[in-house]
Amino acid sequence: MPAVMKAIWKTRIPEMAFIARSLDPSLETAKDEEAASQAPEQVAKLGEKVQIQRGLGSIGMKKEQIGEMAELATSVKRLLDNSPVSFDKEALIGILEEAY
Known about the structure:
By secondary structure, the protein is mostly helical. The protein is about 60% helix and about 0% strand. Helix 1 (about 1-10) crosses helix 6 (about 90-100). The radius of gyration is 15 Å and the shape is flat.
């Protein structure tokens, strides 16, 4: 999830700022854009605190599978159609590499 958040935070600044401030009250006085940019890392830190494994490799995905997974993801129209950012296969590869 943090990798996807990194890819879309600039299109959802108010929402991402809210998330970041909810997880780190010290961001309350930060400008929205500054707070929003911290949301992906704040969510990643929360995941670590509750012991969610970080990275696709930690759940068994092999790096060689990234291209295949991106190709499969392009067929999930419901998610892509509802995304605030349009993603092609190359963008999805970037997100998966970030999440690896």
